[in-house]
Amino acid sequence: MTNPYKQSYKQDLIDNVSLAIFNCGLQSCTPGHSWGPGVRDHYLIHFVLSGKGQYVCNGKTYNIKAGDMFLIKPSQVVHYIADENDPWEYYWVGFNGTYAQKAVSTLPFKDSIPVYTPKDYESCKEYLYQIYANSGSSMSNTTAMIGYLYLFLAKLIEENNLISPMPSVTQSSYVIEAIKFIQFNYSTDISVDDIANAVGISRSHLYRVFVSNLGQSPIDYLTEYRINEACNLIKNTNLSISQIAVSVGFFDQFYFSRVFKKIKKIPPSKYMQSIENQGEV
After folding, report:
1. Closest by alpha carbon to 45, among 130, 115, 148?
2. How far is CA 205 from CA 26, 185, 277, in A?
3. Are 47 and 95 in contact (CB under 8 A)?
4. How far apart are CA 91 and CA 24, in angstroms?
5. Cα 93 vs. chain centroid, distance in angstroms?
6. pLDDT tens for residues 88-107?
7. Bridge pairing between strands 52-57 and 78-82
8. pTM score of the predicted model
9. CA-wise closest residue to 81 among 38, 17, 127
10. Which residue, 192, 178, 182, is CA-closest to 248?
11. Where in the chain is the domain with CATH 1.10.10.60?
């Protein structure tokens, strides 16, 4: 057994982009080392390089060995523990963003079995190594980390395509067209009916294809998109909160603040203050 160690990197502030790395690292655990039961607020994938342990998710226990991956989703109560005699060593990467849920829905992990053994072990290992090797807060570091995360996810998506058929082109195209409509019109007073009419399907059909492809309703997607755009404006402009609210399609500042706090867990004023404080460091 190698000597226990932990090397990790964590972003101080996650950019509200399509895909952002929350943390990453490499750890050789001590016998019986565990985390949880608890919940994460981001997606997290562990890739076991050696040793073994157990992963408890949705009330089920999975025996994990070298070469296996396990996925943790936001708000899932999970618990994982290293074996007492042969504790595991693993890479991990935590990520989030507007694209994260869509990407995860196309990975080979299932709700019934959140464990997967990749066919291309070496490529997955290399991409995770490169994510950590390039960790840092500079633009070049961040770009490299995200690039290798995309390659890592692309490899798993490619493997999943060999296992399960992709959603029908028609369903996917409806979602793509709806997202384009949202991107061009989110700052106006659009409704779910407007989105459905623009795509050319009924409101109920739009709901079904969104849940099937993205795991969330059209209104939830629209709301999160608006709030993420608000975060970008807070970081990159000097607009007031009321001006930002109007700019992203909220015409009631108090309602905007309530929705912002619900999604980001802090009021927009405190989020703005955290950005200003970061700039002073």
Report:
1. 115
2. 44, 21, 45
3. no
4. 7
5. 10
6. 999 999 998 878 888 898 89
7. antiparallel
8. 0.61
9. 38
10. 182
11. 169-280
Q: Break the chain down into helix, strand, coil percent, rounded to 5.
A: 45, 20, 30
For residue 160, what are the contacts with CB-CB under 8 A and spacing of at least 6?
106, 107, 108
Residue-level pLDDT at 234: 92
Residue carrying structure tokens 């073994």:
52
pLDDT value of residue 15:
45
Q: What distance in Å separates the CA atoms of residue 142 and residue 149, rounded to the nearest whole number?
A: 11
- CB contact set of 60 (below 8 Å; sequence gap of 6+): none
Q: CATH 2.60.120.280 spans which residues of the chain?
A: 5-163
Give the contacts of 161 (CB within 8 A, at least 6 positions apart).
none
**Spans of the chain below 50 pLDDT:** 13-16, 280-281
Q: What is the pLDDT of residue 206?
A: 93
d(CA 271, CA 124): 35
Contacts 24+ apart (CB under 8 A), 272-277: 272/234, 272/241, 274/13, 275/13, 275/234, 275/235
**277: Cα separation from own chain's centroid:** 25
Q: Please give the DSSP secondary-structure letter assigned to residue 77.
A: -
Polymer length of the chain = 281
- Give CATH for domain 169-280: 1.10.10.60
CA nearest neighbour of 242 among 228, 231, 229, 256? 256
Q: Which fold has domain 5-163?
A: Jelly Rolls (2.60.120)
Q: How many CB atoms lie within 10 A of CB 163?
A: 10
Task: Give CA separation, 254 vs 106, 192, 251, 259, in Å.
Answer: 37, 22, 9, 9
